[in-house]
Every structure is written in C-alpha cells, then in structure tokens.
Amino acid sequence: MEFWILPVCRISVMVMLISCTDQGVADQTQSAYFLPEFALSPQGSFLEDTTEEQYLTYRYDDQSSRTTRSDEDRDTGWDAWGAWSDCSRTCGGGASYSLRRCLNGGNCDGRNIRYRTCSNTDCPPESGDFRAQQCSAHNDIKYQGQTYEWIPVTSDPVSPCALRCQARARSLVVELAPKVLDGTRCKADSLDMCINGVCQEVGCDRQLGSNAKEDNCGTCAGDGSTCRLVRGQALPHLSPDEPMKTVFEVPMGSRGLRITAKGPDVIVIEAPAPNSRREEIVFSSPGSHSLANNTVEYQRGAERQTFRCLGPLYADFTVKVKYAGPKDTVMQFMFYQPIRYQWRETDFFPCSVTCGGGYQLNSADCIDIRSNKTVGEQYCHSYPENNKPKPKLKECNMDPCLESDGFKEVMPYDHFQPLPRWEQNPWTSCSVSCGGGIQERSVVCVEEDVHGQILQVEEWKCTHSPRPISKQDCNTFECPQWMAMEWSQCTVTCGPGLRYRVVLCVDHRGQHTGGCEPHRKPHIKEDCLVPVACHKPRENQPVEAKLPWLKQAQGLEETKVALEDPTFIPGAWTACSVSCGLGIQRRQVKCKVLLSFTQSEVELPDEECDEEKPPSQRACDSGSCSESPDSPRWPVGSQEIGYGWEYMGFTACSASCAAGKQMAVVRCVSTSQKEIADDALCRGSRAPLSSYRICNPQPCPARWEVSVWNPCSVSCGVGLQTRSVSCVRTVAGNRTDPASSKDCVESRPPELQACNQMACPPAWVTESWQQCSHSCGRGSQWRKVYCKQRLATGSYRRLGDEECPGNKPAAHRTCFISDCLLPRLEGGEWSKCSVTCGKGVQRREPVCRRQTASGQMVTLDRSACGGLSLPPLVRSCRMSPCSKHRYSKNRCPQVMGLKRIYIQTRQEKRLSFTVGGRAYLLPKTSITVKCPVRHFPKAQIRWEKNGNELKSSKHLSITKSGALRIYNLDAGDIGVYRCWANQDSETFVLKLIGHNNRLLEHPDGLEKDDGFHPFLSKEGVKCHEQGSAKKTSKLYPGWMQKNEFYRDDNGQTKDTLSKHSAAFVLEPAQFEELVRNITQLAESGDVTDEMASLLIRKIMEDLAITEHGTANKELSTTVDNYSNKTPNSSTPSLGIRKGSGAVIVRQKHHGSAMSFQRDLRIHVGRTAYLTNATHSLTLICPAQGSPHPTLSWSKDGDPLQNTKRISWTGSGELHISGHDPRDVGIYRCTATNDHGADSETSHVLMAESPTIAVSWRNTSDLHSRSVAVLVGGSVHVRVGANVTLGCPVKGVPQPTVSWHRKEGPLSTGASPLLNGSLLLRNVTLQDSGMYSCVAANDIGKSVASSLLRVAEGSADESEHQSLKEMNRKRVLMASLIGTSITVKPGDILRIGCPVVPSHKKPITWSYQNQTLKQSPGGSYRMLMAGRILEMNTLGGTFDGRYECQTQTGNQRLTAWVYVLSQGIEWRLGSWSTCSASCGNRGAQVRKVRCVTSDGQETPPSVCHHLPKRISQPRPCNRQDCPPSWVSTVWSRCSSSCGRGFRERRVSCQQLEASGSVKVLPSTACDGTPRPEDREECISQACVEWITGSWGKCTGRCLGPAVATQSRTVSCHHFTNSTSKTCDAKERPPSIRNCSSEACDVHWKVLPWRTCTAACGSGFQSRRVECVHRQKRKTLPDQHCTWQPRPVTWQHCNITSCGSECQDRTHYCPVVDRLRLCQVDLYRQRCCQTCSQDSSTT
C-alpha cells in the first residue's frame, strides 16, 4: 500500500495534534505539529515532498477551477496559474501561493508553485511574536517525560527556518519542528520570511524577492535625498571655572547617531521630557540607556567613549560635556539629519470638464514634516536636495455628454479636448531705439474646448509645460554719436580768421546716419589767429561770405533728418539772388517728426520744436561785377599768362583704418594744353582752398593696450607691480573699443613684474596675544616678539634683538576676566546609587557658589542665588544586572569582526584595521589587521588568503595576538584574507589604488575567495552551541573600543574620522550616502575625479552583497482640533445642516501665540506677533454653513484688496508676505451666506523686546514720608520712609516685571504692585542695597537697577553727607562713540577720559571744540593728572559737548560726552476722538508729548534720548450699529457681445458690539434707500479669432523628428467681416511643433585620422556627416543644425621630440624677468628661455 506523507496538514483555526507514521521509521512516543491561523498547503495530492530550492509538483484533479491558459504557458506545456490561496497570517506579513499543472506528464521546465507576500500590516503589540507563539504551543506537550515553557531561539544561521526553542531558565535547546509556519521571520531583525522551510528574501517594501533596502534616511528604496549627513569634530575647552558646555544638538528624527569622545570628561545627553521638563543621562557605566523613548548604547574604554543610537530620535538631543580632568576631550560625531521641509504631492485638481473627456493636474506643497503642515515654498527651496515634483496629468470624466435627444454621436476620443497651453502675444516695440531697452509681451494660459473655442484659464493648468518669457532685452547696440574730424587750416594768412572741421553722426557700424542729439553736436567752426601782421586795408565783407570759404562752409554742412522727437529740418539753399556782387540765398526750415510705426515724416507747427530755429536766409557773393561774364569763375587764373590752379586728385590716405584723411592736390596747369607747370607761373592767380575727405573709416585691427605700472606692493624685500592689459581696437575719432583677447594676434604683454628687490632694514615682528592664563579673574598674556629682516629674495632672516632699532615690544601683559565673578547655582556631589543592581537614581543638593578674583570658589547663602535656575538634582544610574543566570563555560569561539569600509586618501607609513571589512589602500603602506576573538586562545588564530593558508615570511607575519602584518603593500597583496578561530571566521578584503587613481588588479587575477578553506575541516569539531550566531557590535560592545581606524606611526591611537584624516571610514549603511556625495569628495580634493568614478562602480558591487536595515518608525502627526464655538447659534454644532447659517470654526487656544518661524500660520481669533524672523503670515479662517459661506477680510474696518503682498483664497486663508510695520492692525474675517453671518478678529502686532524707561537722576529726600522715583538712579531716604520704585516698561507682548535684590531676597516689607512698581514700606537700614527691575517677554529681557541708601540721624546732616558722597563718586566716563547725560543744575559733574591709570601722556579737554585751560577760580578743574574733568554746574551755561584727546601708542584717542541741563520728559496728552461711532472698532489714544519741567511742549527730537512712554488705546462706542444695506461686487455681464445685464446680492445687515455681523430682514432697513441689485451692461467684444487648418509639417527642424507647421489666424466679426479689434492676448498660435520623419537626423562621426606629427605638436581630423537615421542617407549639414556639430579636428602628440630644450609654459618670460631660472623646477620647464639668459650672461 502506498502512503503519501503530507508535511503540513490541513486544519481550521484550532490547534491540532497529528501523529504521522512513515515506513522504515520507528514509532515515537509523541510527535506534535503546531499549525497556524491558516495552513499554507495546497489542497490536493503531492508527488513529492522537498525542501530547500526544490518545489512541489502538484497533481490536481479538479479541471473546472483552472483559469484560461496564456499563449506563453501553452507553448511551454504548463496550464494557466490557479487562484491565490488565503494568506497564512492575518497580520505581520504572511504568504500566499498559486499552483499550475503540467500538461506534458510531468516533463515541464519550471516550477508549479509560486508565492507572494500578503497581510503586510503590522500586528497589534499584544499579539506577541509569531515564532514565540509556535514555541508556546508545545508547553503542554511532554518532552522526554517533562513539560517545559518554551521560548524561541531567534537567531540560528544554520537552520533559520527550523522551529528551535529553548526551555526557559535552562540551557536545553530542542528543534520542535523541522519547519516553522509560512510567514515566520527568519531573523528577529529582518523582514526575510520562511516559506516551506526555506528562508526567502523580503525587501523593505514587504515584497517577496525584492532587494529594496532602507536608505540612511529610513526611506524604503530611497535615494537618501530626504536627509543629509552631518559630521564634525569639537574640542570643548573645559575648566573648573566653566565645568559644562553644550557641544552640539541633534534634531528630532535623526538617524545613525554616533559619538566618539577621547578624553577624561563626562558626556551628558539631554532631551525634553513631559510637562516642559528636561531629562538627561550622565554616562558613567557602559550599557544600554533609555532617553526620550530611544536606546543609547554606551561603551567606555581606557581613553575612549563611544555612543550609538540607531534612531530615529523621538526628541531633540542636546550633547554636553562635563569637566572631569585637566586634559581636553576631543569629540567626533556623525548622524543623518532629516530634511525638515519636503515636497508632498497634492490631490488632483477638479476635472477641466464635467463630461466629454477632460484632464486633471496636481501640484506639490512644501510640508513641515514635524508639524505635518504646509509652509511656504522657500523652505523647500532652501535645501538643494529638494526637487519639486513636476505636475502630473491624467484623464477624467471620459463619459459622453448628454444632449436633449440623448448621447452625442461623437465619443470623447474622436474630439478629445487638447491640453491647455501657453499663448504669447507679439513683442511690444522696444522701449528705446538704441543703447539697450526692454520689450515685453503678455503670456496667458488658454484652453480649447470641444467646440474649438479658445478661452483664457487659470495659469496652474499650464504648469505641465514651462512658461515662456515675458520680457527680453532689445536694441542693445550703441546709440549714434557725433564724430569730429581735425580742424582745417586758418582761412587767413595773417591776423584773425576762421577754421572749420567736419562733424559726422556715426552709428555703431561706423556708417554716417542721423539720430544724434542736436544739442550735443560739436561746433564746426571757431576763431583762429595767425600771428602775422596784415598790411592790407580791412575789408568790410566777412570772410565767410567770400567765395572760397563760403563754398567750403556750404560743403561742410550736414544734411539733417527727422527724428522721433520734433526737430527743425532745413531745406536746400536757393541760388544767389544776384549774378555778381553780394546777394541773398533762401531756404525752407520746417518742424518735422518721424513716425516710427509708419517710417514717415510729418510736419508740425514751429512751436512744437524746442530747439532754436536755423536761419532761413544768408548772404552770398557771386564775385566781382567788373569781370567779363564769359570769364571762368573757377579755377581762377590769368588768361594773359595762360596758367591757372586746378585739382589733380587726392593724396594717399593718412591712415589705413579708423577714418584717415586725403588732401586735395592742387597744381598749376596751362589753360591751353592742360599741362602741369611750375607753381611760380600761377602766383598771380587766386589759389583754391585746400580741402580733404575722409577715407578708410573701418576700425583698426585689435591691439594690446597697457596701463602704467601700479606702485610696488612693498617698499623693500621683493614686491610685485601690476598693470592692466586689455585688447582694444581703434575706431573713428581716436576712440578705442574693447575687443576679445582672441582678436589680438600679438603676444600678450606681461601684467606683473618684480620690484624693489632690496633688503629691508631689521624690524620687530610680533605675533598675536595668546589667551589669558586664567579663565576668571586676573591673569597674564604673552606673545612672541622677533627681530627679523626681509631679504631681497622675499625670505626672512632671524636676527638678534640688538640688531633692531627702538625698544622691543612687550611680550607679556596682565589681563582680567570679570564675567565669572557672579554667583551661580551648581550641583553638589552625587549620592550613591539607590540600588545595588539594576537601574536606580542618584540625588544631590544645590549649592550657591562664587569665584573670587584669586580663583578660589566661595560658598554663599542660597539667597544670593535667588531667581537662578536649578541644575539637575536627580539622575538615573545603572548597576550590574540583577539576573542570576550564568552562561555555560563551554562556549563556541567567536570572531568579532567589524563591517567597515576604509578608503585611504593620502600616503601613510602604517595603518591598523579590524577584520570584517574592506580596504582601498595606497601601495607602499604597511598594515596590521587584527582578529579579535572570544572564547579562543589568540595564539591559535590561523590566517588564509584566497583559500590558501598563510605562513610568516619577510613580507608578512602573524603576531602572537593573532594579528596579520603586511609590509609595503604591492599588487600581489590584493585579495580576500580570512582569520579562523576553530570553526568561526571573518574576512578582510584588500584592494590597492594605483598612481593613476585606478584600482590595481592582482598580477595573477586572484582576488576572490575560491570557497575552499583549509581550516574548516582541520581544527576541532563542529560547535553546536545554540545562540552562537554571528555577533554585531551592538551585542558585544566591549570590542568596539578598539575597532577604530588609526594611523600607527608612533604606536599611538589617533582618530581619523575628521575631514583632515588620511582615510574615510564608513559603515556599510553609509555606502549609498558616499555614492550620492562622491562629487563633493572630488571637489574637496580628497578623492580625484577618476578615482571617484572608479569607486562608484566598485562600491555598487559591494552594495549588492551588503546587508543592512533599520526598523521602520512611524512619525505621529498632530491634527488641529477645532472647537464647536458658534457665536450666532444657541446650539453649538460643527455639522453642516441644510440651510444653516455661516459659522467660523474657531480653534481652542493652547499656549503662547509667539512663534519665531519664518512662515507663521495661526487661526483667526488669536493674536499674531511679527518678529524679525517672520517672512510671511497666514491667517486661517475655516467656515461652514449651507450654502457654503463667502469670506471677506478687512483691516481696521476697511476692506482689504488683493495685492502682491496681501492675498487670500476661497478657503479663507489670508496670506501676508514680507515684513512691514504697516501690517500691524486688527484683521477681521467675515463669513456670510443667505442664513446669517459670523466674524472673528485677530490682532497683528509687531513684536518688540522689553524696554524700561530709566531715569538717571539721583534723588535725596530725607524729609518726606513717601518717596516715589523711577528706577535708574540712586535714592537716599530716611529710616521709616515708604519708597516706591517705578519700572515703566513697554514691549510686545506686554513684558512681565520682576524685582530682585543683589544682596539677597526681598524683605517682607517689599510688595510688587500691579503696574510693575516695587513698594518698600517702612524701610530700615537693612533695606539698603541694589534693587533690579527685570522686564521680560518672549523676545528678550531688559534690566535696570537703583541703589537705595537708608540714612539715620538728622535730615540735614544726612542730606549733606549724601550729597557729598554723590558729588565725590559721580564720574561719567566719556565714550569713543559718544554718549549723553542730563545734569541737574547745581550738581558737581566729573567726566573721565577712558585711559588706563598708568597713562602718562598729556590729555587735552575741549568744550564745544574750544580747548579748556585750567585757571584759578574757574568753573572747571583737572583732576588725576588730567584724566578727570570736574565741572561746577551751579551757574553759567554748561550744555554742550566735552571731549578729551590723548595719544595711546601710535593712535590718537578721542572720547566725548554731550551734557544736557534742562529737565525734559515724555507725557501723555488728552484722549483723542473715538475712531468709530458704533461696532467693535472704536478706540481712543493719547498723544505722547515731549515737555519740559514747567509743562512747555518741545519738539520730539529733544526727548529722543529718553525712553518714550507707552500710549495704550482704549475702546469706545462699543455698541450695536443701526441696520444698513450691504451689497456685494457686480457679476460679469451676461452677454459677451452686445447688451446684457449683471447682478449683485444686497442684504440688510447690522454690525454688533461683539464684532459679529447679523443679517436682518429687509424691513429693518426700510428707512434707507435700497441699492440696485440688477443693471444693464454692454460688451463690445463681438469679434472672434478664426483659424484655418494646419499646413504640412515642412518647417525647419527643431529637434529629433520635430519640425514646425503653420496655419492662418484672422479676426472676424460675428457678421463674418474682418476686424482688427480682437484681443491680442487671446490670439491662437499660428505655428506649432509637429512630427516630421525628414528631421529624424543625427551627426555621424567617423574615426580620427592619423596624427600629422609623431612628436611635438600635430593635429588630426575626422569626417562629420549629417545622416538620416532610417534611410542612412547623407544630407546637407543644415538639416542637423538643431544640435551642436561635433569637432572635426584636434591637437595630438603634444610631446617632446627627444631631449630638445624647449619652453613648456607661457609663463617663461615672467620667470626670466623675476630671475627664477636658478630654481631647478623653473629651469626645467623654461629650458629654452633660461638657456638664452645664461648664454647672454
């Protein structure tokens, strides 16, 4: 008979015990199987039962339940997969399976069963561990005749999926079942699960077979972009004077916190606790410590302390250091800080249409992950890692639209609505015609509906594409400028005359044009004087009227053209009015303007032109009337002689560029034969005027232009001189324009040169002062002083002190630190721990101490530290565990490896490592690899490399402690090293980095462990101790003290975790962070670019085998709770009823409203305080009602308008951006609907720190029973008086006032008053002392003090003594920045000059800039060698500025004080008129005036130095307003073309005294006229844009397979006639991109040809063709111009040919000038230059 053995039996939810038998197996007494909630086993028969990688072949008989086979399954012989089974677990992650059958009789390739994860939600905490449940099911079953309480063995690397359990409190470990139930975790700290007895990998996404891992930020499959690595090093200098310091803070949510401290000081970590208290841990004993629901692992060695906390932190950690010894403690820390502000995608916006096929877009909000609230986008933009997600788009409402006769015939996809697009209008004309202007265009978001109509929509609908620019530069060329030529010769040969020049208007291209400013035109003629006496009689005719000069002047006149500004345009001159003699010429002069849009000239009235009108007539000379009319006028000559002057061309151009000149050539010729004759033959004729013309106006070639050398940088030694070198080109008018350096073909002149190469005289050199020798009280400082001489080479030479002139500067001085002398409250010695084992507490008492100037600590009475915060008085302590359990002595050996990766970045002699990691090292380095073990003798440790046993040799050795040493690493040392302790081992992978920053390869290619281990079968027997799985550093913290990477040059351990270390030491979990930040390492210079790219590839290989994970934590989010306050309803309710009134949802107020956030968000009803940190304010006004209410905002009673700074949305949020004092006021949110209204207000105030109105007057009143003074001065009263010390304060929020007494607590007779004053009743001598008023609010605090002296004896005697003391002690120190003081006439005023007592140089005093000189009987005198000026203010004028001047060292010291004599103060005036007659906005204020002691009002500037009193407003006229009509804004016109109507809502409302708005019946407002709620309107927009069909896609190529196509767009009236009145902003586009096969082209690059030179400098070329991708056809290059063309040639073989002597750098001329050829480095690189220099010398 054949039996089928089922490994898992099908059961229900109950636990069943089944006894199974098998052939050949002896019966056992008892056999039990625990089955889970659901059994994960197929219902049917199995052909075999296998484990490991083999799967079940299933024989299924039910054919009806099979699903349809796919074509792929049919081809491979398999039937289709069946349905998924029920999940094996209901929570915590289970498994489900699906089956299929083989249709080929069992000969199918593949598996017949597949699995997937299910029920991945976490189980409730009370459900317990799933493996523990399976073990506890055997508690009632006897094992070897006895029952046990079984607990699971959580880590078994050999059989992780076997149910191995341990008897509680016993060492008995038994395998109770060969397989755990499906869904059981393989390890407690892993998501991998057991399925059918095999451990299957599960990623952090809870998917089977997934390799998704959590990144360093705790995000599953994340890229590490939600956090950033923070690492640093700190050296807190502690002392007994400053026993504790805060080193750094770790924000909430951080992960991977690791702190290493080397030194004796004690580390303290503090975190906030409930009830606004602080909780801290002072680490003294190693172990696990709990703080703020986080576990901190603490390890301590001889000199090193290590702290680890995986995180995420549930609170902010503050790390402090407490003094424990004179040696400094070095701290290194590292953690991953979460990015607090992150982008979160929003829900999709409403669909663009209700039917017929539309689209939806979403956006992204910036979220504060701490508060889970939306903040301003600038917070997310402040993190470079944050990239805002692009908007997503999806289809919506795809159902057809309904019509009157049913569904449309056209389905959505037949006429699918196009996406919204950006539409831009044409550019406006440029703002200027030249010189650089701006032109703009409007860009709107438009949308085309299914009917083809184009409408403007909200801009967010177009965010799926970039917005086109709306502004650009234009006409950036230079404006036309006047260019004047050289002056002509003087028009006379003796005496005064005129000279002329040509002035042209030249544009940026050098062409003659118009457009220059007329009023800036240089003059074209000027007077000239020839220093030769004239002997001819003076002619009455002006020289300009003479014919030669007249024609020249006429020829020089420039033709004027019309401009865009009205300008006079003269016409051509008429002919002279006479044929001989003097006549008149006339012309027309008209005012014209150029119309730029039509380029036509228009005449204007003369008054439109502002310039002076040119003359319209002038004199002319037609020559002498005595000559024959037939005689020629020009050239003039003698017919009798037959010779005359004639022009014979021009001379050569005077310049080859930049506008030269050509002079006209005049020769004497015979009139008959036209032959050139001697000039002497024409002396009797009149010579023509010499003239010239402009030639070669083009700019000159570029040239180098240099400036003069700047002064030398030093007066001696060797300095440098610099000058500017620029490439310019000369243009017309001797002007130069800058040019590109590439245009200057000549060699560039040097920009620097050596100067003052001579030795300096010896001089004293001082270093900076060191720190004071005592941190408290008097100490000393020192500095180093040298006598040095700077040589001509630039180096310094140390000389003896006798070589330097003058006195040697002081090397020591005294210093004094007084801040530490105040009393402070400290904690005493800690008591012993309250328990002897386990966790207890320690207590201590507070002690008030003060340090004296000598450095001694003095204990004071507790009252001296009154008001100071108490130090922590209770802390937790942990003793040794109280457990009595003892481990077995027979334990398995364990190798304590450390999973680290080491990357060496600079050369070191020796390095030490711990086995278990990887190392990327530099050659020639000697290393030591330690192999820490437990329960195994170190002398028996064995090592192997790549599976081969290692023996000690000259190159490597194994120490007695089991460490491996390798000397001078080379490529042969690359490989995998393994150390063995019995059957346990750990590996160490070694790789080398070559000189070219590439990883070296092993010469034999042996770098991997081949799997054969010679010690695995040689040593000992296999260890079966349970629970001996691989350890982590967390389980055995004692070994972590030595597992650090350090340099071992001197045998000393050194930390190398700082950025200056020679290596990077990283955990495997930090690999992804390294890959992301590898560019930062390259930029810092620690890793080169080549090495970085190579490391990324190698590191990714390491990542594939690195396992790490951290527990997922869920951050709790807080949700705003709103109260159900509805002021206008008697029944509070938050539910929205049908037809309910408008209600504002008010929030319960908790705590202070003060916040220092950049973006402040508060609910309406609370007071908002604006600080300097506030960048924006959002007032939230949630409202409800049916219908939904409309919201409106007002400020101080006036309606708010939407602006760029102040805006609000329909959801009720008022947003104020920026920080402006004008935003202060009362903001009211009003919610209104048809059933009522509700309103709420918020006060917005500008936060101010507290200020105290201090009076510096000293008061002495020994007669009055009651004395009231302001804090600030000294008060002298008699015994028994009642003293009131006033402390007027101002600040926002209102500060709280507290009083303190320096000498101890306040007496019983002291009573603080409500106004902040302090009343001292019946004062005694013991009440004397210093009283301080402290005003504080959330912004800051302010302190003011008064000295109270109580006198006994007679009043006159006491007052005289008091005045005597005050006059003796009152000394006001002048200030370097100036100060002021108000003095009562009659007081003796002493002003001190701020110099040290040992100051010996003379001090000069001046009053109102007049020097004071001491004289007998004067009103002032000098005391203390002139350091104090004493003034008698009893008579005369003493107001003004007093100044002292003296010499301190090499500087002039000036200090001054301004003295005021008249008593002035701020006073409050009468109340103003009420600001409102009703409602809740009425307020009155009082004006603050500056008045004198007699009540006379003075300008406020006189009192500006006094604290200004606070004028608090008071409410008034708080009563209900009478009913009035309130109307909303008008709606849009009902018709978009022609006549229509518009409407608005009008209601009768009443403003109540509480601020609420009540909607009343219309009859309540019958007494006032009702506004209209409907009126007619007319719209003129009766036109529309008509578009034609798109043309063929034949435009120019824009990209791969992308071209352009066009269509016609015209404006039509509804009557079908064309029009020009369409809105240009709504014009449809006429050009769009399209897909074109003709543009599917690319550049084809052929290989490089052979270099033209084998050495030296050659070049090589290659062919680059434009080829069609599909047709493989070569096309003209213009088809590929949309992408950059690859280079076609390059330099090659830039190497030296043999050993020739050449210069290898272009700085060799500088090397020669600086005479640096004597240095080998420069001589080698500048061989040719230095050789020439040596040959010349």
Detailed description of the structure:
There is one protein chain. This protein has 1737 residues and is mainly beta. The protein is built from eleven helices and 124 strands. The strands form 41 sheets. Strands 68-67-71-72-64-62-74 form a seven-stranded mixed beta sheet, with no helix packed on it. β82 and β83 form a beta hairpin. α6 (1078-1084) packs antiparallel against α7. The relative contact order is 0.04.
Number of strands: 124
Based on secondary structure, the structural category is: mainly beta
Q: What is the general shape? A: extended
Contiguous helical run count: 11
Write the layout of secondary structure elements.
Elements: E1 45-46, E2 58-59, H1 71-76, E3 94-99, E4 113-118, H2 130-136, E5 150-152, E6 163-167, E7 173-177, E8 184-185, E9 193-195, E10 198-200, E11 227-234, E12 244-250, E13 255-262, E14 266-273, E15 277-282, E16 287-291, E17 294-300, E18 304-309, E19 317-322, E20 330-338, E21 341-345, E22 358-361, E23 364-368, E24 373-375, H3 377-381, E25 393-396, E26 402-403, E27 406-407, E28 421-424, E29 437-440, E30 443-448, E31 454-456, E32 471-474, E33 481-484, E34 495-500, E35 503-506, E36 525-530, H4 547-556, E37 567-570, E38 582-586, E39 589-595, E40 600-604, E41 617-621, E42 637-638, E43 643-650, E44 660-670, E45 692-695, E46 703-706, E47 717-722, E48 725-731, E49 735-738, E50 752-758, E51 763-766, E52 777-782, E53 785-790, E54 796-799, E55 812-817, E56 824-827, E57 839-843, E58 846-851, E59 857-860, E60 874-878, E61 894-895, E62 901-904, E63 910-914, E64 918-921, E65 926-930, E66 933-934, E67 942-945, E68 948-949, E69 956-958, E70 964-966, E71 975-981, E72 984-992, E73 1046-1047, E74 1063-1066, H5 1071-1076, H6 1078-1084, ...
Parallel strand pairs: 62-64, 63-65, 64-72, 76-78, 77-85, 87-89, 88-90, 89-96, 97-99, 98-105
Antiparallel strand pairs: 1-2, 3-4, 5-6, 6-7, 8-9, 9-10, 11-20, 12-19, 13-18, 13-20, 14-15, 14-19, 16-17, 17-18, 21-23, 22-25, 23-24, 26-27, 28-30, 29-32, 30-31, 33-35, 34-36, 37-39, 38-41, 39-40, 42-43, 43-44, 44-45, 46-48, 47-50, 48-49, 51-53, 52-55, 53-54, 56-58, 57-60, 58-59, 61-66, 62-74, ...
Helix pairs in contact: 6-7
